[in-house]
């Protein structure tokens, strides 16, 4: 996370807020308590480790560049399907500084070849792809915190305004330019499912990589053999990140999923230093500096991060969602929207993530390729939807800091796409599980995550519920939390489970503070967005009814996808090693009792009765409210200004 900004622009935006209609999806005649929430609720006392460690040094392996010329490096495999991966790698070093000294980057001067086969001795098949590169402008290297306000729009003196009616940027100094090396994307298609392949990238003329291997996922079928998915978020490149990485490799999963916040390159000043040097102290992460300041980034941290990740990514196909640290607002973009907020095209946001991860390259996912940051794909037994929480026409308490990015609202392009995807691309027989991932959590009871994306929740949650989403996974908050099945803050046997796993160990450290009587008001101020309540009430002082387990520790999770109604989830915290489990549960589906989880999805007339199976008295105040307003579908509008 870390969304602090010294310069905050005034914002005014409408959030269309509709009360959540309570629809009873419990089938008539279902047993009264087919679903029982976890008891007791567990809240592991806030762990007091040193909060986090600094990033690993850039001038030592594994972060340092270990090849020369156009030898391949940063090799990774993007999951497309059980029969296809996109192999991605870099050749040539980045260039950084004044553009006048740059050598041109010619992506096609180096081949995009992958040689592969079923044994390391016979890489007899070849695939060819495409090459690309990207560049960003950022502030000069003498940049310091006192200049953070240098792009604040001020009154424009006659004759000195640019096309956006803004004055020249005072005190910002000349801009530097980072231009990446060549980024290769090569789709390898028509693979056999559940098969081990060996591969090598590059060409004889300019250099070949070593030989790597990976296993394809099983074929997409209504039944499958149990398999593992390893998941993490908010990774970074610290000593802690590298411990989590080792455990992710040891998990030996078929697929790995990273739910946003990859490199934390935007936590750096342009000269590569962190300032203030404050992350190792026990300050709440909401006070952590940087992250989100337009044109303040140390882009070489992307190259170092991919080097660190290579042992996992070259052997396990991965899927990525975009987080707030991937936004990396560009300076020109920032200036253009200062006067015309919300009207600018989001073309330059997510530039590094988009170019390197390369969804636009393979274009094999289903999604809007003009903003190629939300998509869906199928894993064995699972339809996976990846959303981007930082685009759209709304604002939220946090996202307003990201100039030009918004928050998803009903009616946005992403919403329309999601509805269409779930209607046409989701087949419950083929993929019984429906899982959604996006970076920041809706259900989270830590300071910083509390009601922080409430507008997004209020706009999207009923769509999730209608289509019977089973599991929703998040990162962003640097701690672990798992909920019971919940809808609109009430335990609901036909609602999804939610998890926050933003605890892979990045430089910003742990989020250690639970919301309680002391921290509640600060939590709403730090996180709460335009749709959040403004004042705390006593029911907010304890672990919320929907929160089953929470623990501020670094770690990762593994999903053992057992069958059409059971997925085993295990949480592995760093201090114990990969083989020790500190939390585990079985996620279940109830297609026989929940009509929103049956195939085909049946529309049920809204009813204003209480959810069957919820324990008497368990839902708190919010739940009671939602039951009372069950039939109220009137829209109300609120205005926010920040
Ligand atoms: C950075 O430099 C490259 C190479 O000279 C150039 O193509 C690119 O347009 C520059 N990028 C920006 C954002 O100005
Ligand atoms: C490299 O050269 C060897 C020997 O001529 C050839 O078999 C192989 O296919 C070449 N590899 C690539 C990637 O071009
Ligand atoms: C992070 O890594 C440091 C250095 O190895 C260690 O001392 C610390 O306990 C770790 N923090 C957590 C929360 O695991
Ligand atoms: C570290 O953070 C604290 C609290 O935000 C602040 O008071 C202090 O000045 C910072 N230290 C440095 C070295 O910047
Ligand atoms: C914002 O709303 C307009 C009009 O409904 C829509 O065309 C556009 O796609 C929306 N923007 C995003 C980023 O969804
Ligand atoms: C859904 O998947 C099943 C199993 O693969 C298949 O038999 C069926 O035709 C699919 N339904 C549709 C509408 O594509
Ligand atoms: C709430 O949490 C804070 C931060 O951990 C702690 O200092 C405080 O004692 C707690 N207050 C209550 C009432 O539990
Ligand atoms: C799925 O696996 C769970 C847990 O092992 C088991 O209880 C259940 O009977 C299985 N269901 C089916 C349909 O095989």
From TrEMBL:
Matches recorded under CDD domains: MPP_PAPs (cd00839)
Residues of the Purple acid phosphatase C-terminal domain: 541-581
Domain Calcineurin-like phosphoesterase: 247-480
Gene3D superfamilies assigned: 3.60.21.10, Purple acid phosphatase-like, N-terminal
Region annotation Disordered: where it falls in the sequence: 599-642
Keyword Chaperone: no
Family to which this protein belongs: Belongs to the metallophosphoesterase superfamily. Purple acid phosphatase family.
Signal peptide bounds: 1-19
Reaction(s) catalysed by this chain's protein: a phosphate monoester + H2O = an alcohol + phosphate
Keyword Signal assigned: yes
GO molecular function: acid phosphatase activity; metal ion binding
Keywords: Glycoprotein, Hydrolase, Signal
Entries under Pfam families matching the protein: Metallophos, Metallophos_C, Pur_ac_phosph_N
Purple acid phosphatase N-terminal domain location: 72-216
Cross-referenced InterPro entries: Calcineurin-like_PHP (IPR004843), Metallo-depent_PP-like (IPR029052), MPP_PAP (IPR041792), PAPs-like (IPR039331), PAPs_C (IPR025733), PAPs_N (IPR015914), Purple_acid_Pase-like_N (IPR008963)
Name of this chain's protein: Purple acid phosphatase
């Amino acid at each position: 996370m870390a969304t602090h900004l010294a310069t905050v622009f005034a914002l005014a935006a409408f959030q269309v807020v509709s009360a959540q209609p309570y629809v009873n999806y419990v089938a008539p005649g279902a047993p009264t308590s087919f679903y029982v929430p976890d008891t007791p609720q567990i809240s592991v006392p806030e762990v007091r480790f040193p909060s986090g460690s600094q990033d690993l040094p850039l001038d030592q392996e594994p972060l340092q560049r270990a090849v020369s010329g156009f030898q391949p490096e940063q090799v990774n495999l993007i999951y497309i399907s059980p029969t296809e991966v996109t192999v991605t790698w870099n050749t040539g070093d980045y260039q950084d500084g004044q553009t006048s000294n740059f050598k041109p980057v010619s992506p096609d001067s180096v081949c995009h070849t992958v040689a592969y086969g079923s044994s390391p001795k016979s890489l007899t098949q070849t695939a060819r792809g495409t090459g690309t590169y990207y560049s960003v402008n950022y502030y000069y290297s003498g940049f310091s915190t006192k200049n953070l306000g240098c792009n604040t729009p001020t009154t424009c003196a006659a004759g000195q305004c640019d096309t956006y009616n803004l004055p020249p940027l005072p005190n910002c100094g000349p801009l530097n330019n980072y231009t990446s090396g060549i980024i290769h994307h090569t789709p390898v298609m028509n693979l056999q499912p559940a098969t081990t392949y060996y591969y090598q990238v590059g060409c004889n003329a300019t250099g070949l990589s070593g030989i790597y291997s990976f296993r394809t996922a099983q074929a997409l079928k209504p039944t499958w053999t149990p398999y593992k998915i390893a998941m993490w978020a908010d990774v970074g490149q610290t000593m802690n990140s590298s411990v989590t990485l080792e455990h992710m490799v040891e998990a030996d999963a078929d697929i790995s999923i990273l739910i946003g916040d990859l490199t934390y390159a935007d936590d750096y000043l342009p000269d590569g230093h962190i300032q203030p040097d404050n992350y190792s102290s026990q300050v709440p992460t909401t006070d952590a500096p940087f992250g989100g300041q337009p044109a303040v980034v140390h882009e070489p941290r992307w190259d170092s991060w991919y080097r660190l990740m290579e042992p996992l990514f070259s052997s396990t196909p991965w899927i990525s969602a975009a987080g707030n640290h991937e936004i990396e607002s560009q300076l020109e973009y920032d200036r253009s929207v200062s006067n015309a907020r919300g009207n600018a095209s989001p073309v330059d946001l997510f530039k590094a993530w988009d170019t390197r991860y390369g969804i636009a390259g393979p274009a094999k996912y289903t999604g809007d390729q003009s903003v190629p940051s939300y998509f869906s794909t199928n894993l064995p037994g699972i339809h996976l939807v990846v959303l981007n929480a930082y685009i759209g026409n709304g604002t939220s308490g946090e996202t307003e800091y990201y100039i030009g990015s918004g928050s998803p609202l009903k009616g946005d392009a992403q919403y329309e796409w999601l509805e269409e995807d779930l209607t046409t691309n989701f087949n419950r027989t083929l993929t019984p599980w429906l899982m959604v991932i996006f970076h920041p959590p809706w259900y989270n009871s830590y300071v910083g995550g509390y009601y922080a994306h409430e507008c997004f929740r209020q706009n999207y949650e009923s769509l999730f519920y209608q289509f019977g989403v089973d599991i929703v996974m998040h990162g962003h908050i640097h701690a672990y939390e798992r909920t019971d099945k919940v809808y609109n803050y009430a335990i609901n046997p036909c609602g999804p489970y939610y998890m926050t796993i933003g605890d892979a160990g990045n430089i910003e450290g742990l989020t250690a503070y639970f919301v309680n009587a002391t921290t509640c008001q600060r939590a709403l101020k730090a996180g709460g967005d335009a749709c959040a309540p403004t004042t705390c009430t006593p029911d907010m002082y304890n672990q919320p009814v929907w929160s089953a387990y929470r623990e501020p520790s670094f770690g990762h999770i593994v999903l053992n996808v057992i069958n059409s109604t059971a997925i085993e989830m295990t949480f592995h915290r760093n201090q114990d090693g990969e083989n020790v489990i500190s939390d585990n549960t079985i996620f279940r589906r109830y297609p026989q009792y929940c009509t929103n989880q049956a195939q085909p999805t049946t529309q049920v007339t809204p009813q204003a009765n209480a959810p069957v199976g919820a324990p008497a008295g368990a839902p708190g105040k919010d739940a009671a409210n939602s039951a009372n307003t069950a039939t109220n579908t009137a829209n109300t509008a609120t205005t926010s200004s920040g």
